[in-house]
Amino acid sequence: MVTMKKNKKSPWQVRRDIALQVVAIVVSLVFLVPLFWMVSTSLKESTQVFTNPPQWLPNPVVWNNYAEAVTKIDYLRYSGNTLLVSVTSMIGSMLSASMVAFSITKIEWFGKKLIFPLVLGSMMLPYQVTMIPVYIIWRDLGLTGTYLPLIIPYFLGSSYYVFLLRQFSMTVPNALFEAATIDGASYGKQYLTIMLPLIKPAITSVGIFTFLGSWSDFLGPLIYINNERNYTLTLGLYAFVSEHSVDWHLLMAASVVFVIPVIIIFFFAQKQFIEGITLTGIKG
Amino acid sequence: MRSTGNKVSRVGFFQNPIKRTRTIWGFLFSLPWIIGFLGFTLIPIIQSFYYSLTEYSIFRSPKWVGLDNYVYLFTRDRLFTTALKNTLYMTVFGTALTLIVALLLALLLNTKLRARSLFRTIFYIPSILPQVASSLVWMWILNSRWGLLNNLLNSLGIASVNWFGDAAYTKPSLIMIGVWCCGNIMIIFLAALQDVPRSLYEAAEIDGAGTMSKFRHITLPSLSPSLLFQIIMGVINGFQYFTQAYIISNASGAEQRTYGPQNSMLFYAGYMYSRGFVNFDMGLASAMAWVLFIIVAIVTVIILKSSRRWVYYGG
After folding, report:
1. Which residues of A touch B44 (CB under 8 A)?
2. Chain A within 8 Å of B286 (Cβ-Cβ)?
3. Where in chain B are the domains?
4. Alpha-carbon dihedral angle through residues A67, A73, A74, A77, given to the nearest 10 degrees
5. Which alpha helices (H) appear in B90-130, and where do they start and end?
6. pLDDT digits (tens, 9 = 90+) for B176-229
7. What whole-number distance in Å separates Cα of residue A8 and Cα of residue A11?
8. What is the mean pLDDT of chain A?
9. What secondary structure letter does DSSP report for B262?
10. Hey, what long-range contacts does A177-183 have (CB within 8 A, 24 or more apart)?
């Protein structure tokens, strides 16, 4: 290995490296253009939006578009609603998925081997397969129109996150738990003092994914939320599009405001994102 | 030895306090999932099979009709056939293209690139955007008259394309959005690439293997397990494809609920949603749910079976 590093690059390799670098730059520009265009449009005057050829930079910069979009959509109310749903879902998901993962990796009982294949199976099950009867269940309980149909499933250990935490929990040595058992620690205590601290990175990933999934969810609110006052942001944005389909500067401003929390979370938690995805993706 | 041990402990379950505590705690910790699985997965699947054999508008109680719903779907419902075809199109071409681009980007990021983590971030970000937002951005970029892409095409002397207004271009446009969001799959491929032992490549180089040969005989086999998983997920997600098509086909200013020009954006999940929650035809929608369930199960089994021939599990 050391000897290979010392080899000088051949001219062919140098040219190849430069070509790859150029490809990477060009492709990343293509990936960035839609985002750039969203921000740029959001800051334009309405007259500048419809130009041919396109005007890349807004001139003048109209920050007022944001104020207008946010008041027209009732952004404050909808983001409050969305936060309520997302944060509670996040807590439920972190709590229940870690409990179930603990049960099927660290406790020797008959369910340990039974549950995992069912977790895998229900993870692959399309949402649509159970969509209708689950809706009827919530309707019979008189709870459609509330946020509960959107939140409660996360408190019941959604299979994808149980799977993710199970994969991570497998890497934690069982000896730690066996030693604790010998010392007389109950399973409840083991969960709190050993399991939770050790799988914290993976629980963080679960929290982030649940939050973002819930923040971005469209179909769930579309089915269950019918009162405009209770709309989540996705519904509010959709309703706004249907009414103002030509006010692209406002639509883009609204989209930017909707997307910013996601981008901020991403930059603060890049590591958890990458690790969380890798954890569920490889073993299959 | 083992079987006798088991028998003894099974007999002694109620007398064996250690085993009893374990079972109780294990059960308690799994209880949330057990309730969820029974209440929101297993029982609903069975219920929906019953509903699928009934005529059930949500306002009246279910009326038994036997297999009528299934017969109707496959013989008389032309929208269902269209939805099935469109979904198949999106699943096959959309998944294939997304996986290929994700793989190419992962390969690119796996070379000795400068500012690699910056590129990784850029490729990844579109995949975390809420679908509602990415739909809006692309609706604007692909706007037939004022959209950025047509403007750029025009400046190159290419005529405008009516992306979401021409039935021939709606699905390619949607696939384009999907490819733009391939970042999370790229991350999975990248992680798999980084797991390939360097020694394999070095040994191949000593044997005089070229770039293509190394890719064919080392990289692809090492990636095959994650590739398999992504293909299966691609099929499953393909049948759930909803949000972007729904928003783009409904929000393009049309007064009436449409599925895009000539129903070209009518997909399985969207049609099921309309049947269930717009027409309140819960029986028919349930039959669609069961058809979906069976299709996904069969396709998954076929892919898994075929995988024995092409997936390589190392170690």
Report:
1. 130, 133-134, 137
2. yes
3. 68-310
4. -120
5. 95-109, 116-128
6. 999 999 999 999 999 999 888 888 888 998 888 888 888 888 999 889 988 998
7. 9
8. 90
9. G
10. A177/A106
CATH 1.10.8.60 fits B68-310, yes or no: no
The reply to whether residue B30 touches residue A99, judged by beta carbons under 8 angstroms, is yes
- In this prediction, residue B244 has a pLDDT band, given cuts at 50, 70 and 90, of very high
ipTM attached to this prediction: 0.90
Task: Tell me which residues of chain B, numbers 159 to 198, contact chain A at a CB-CB cutoff of 8 Å.
Answer: 180, 184-185, 187-188, 191-192, 195, 198
CA B222-B227-B233 angle, to 5 degrees, is: 155
Q: Mapping DSSP to helix (H, G, I), strand (E, B) and coil, where does residue B115 land?
A: coil
Q: Which domains does chain A have, with CATH numbers?
A: 2-66 (no CATH), 74-243 (1.10.3720.10)
Contacts of range B139-146, beta carbons closer than 8 Å, 24 or more positions apart: B139/B164, B139/B247, B139/B248, B139/B251, B139/B252, B140/A37, B140/A38, B140/A41, B140/A248, B140/A251, B140/A252, B141/A34, B141/A37, B142/B173, B143/A248, B146/A49, B146/A50, B146/A51, B146/A52, B146/A248
- How far is it, in rounded angstroms, from Cα A59 to Cα A200? 47
Q: Please write the tens of the pLDDT for every residue from A23-78.
A: 999 999 999 999 999 999 999 988 888 887 788 899 889 999 999 999 988 899 99
Nearest to A274 by CA among A262, A264, A266, A284: A266
pLDDT at B17 over 70: yes
Rounded CA-CA distance B204/B202 in Å is 5
pLDDT, one tens digit per residue, over A86-106 is 999 999 999 999 999 999 999
Q: Which amino acid is at B238?
A: G
| B contact test, residue of A23, A27, A128 with most B CBs within 10 A | A128
**Structural tokens at position A184:** 């007389």
Token look-up 């717009």 returns: B278
Q: Are B259 and B111 in contact (CB under 8 A)?
A: no
Per-residue HEC secondary structure of B28-58 comes to HHHHHHHHHHHHHHHHHHHHHHHHHCEECEC
Q: At what angle do helices B17-37 and A111-124 cross, to 10 degrees?
A: 10
Length of chain A: 284
- Token pair recorded at residue B304: 């898994």
Question: CA-CA distance, B250 to B131, in Å (whole number)?
Answer: 15
Helices and strands in chain A: count of H runs, count of E runs: 17, 0
Report the residue count for chain B: 315
Q: For residue B209, give the H/E element and its range.
A: none
What are the φ/ψ torsions at residue A99 (nearest 5 degrees)? -65, -50
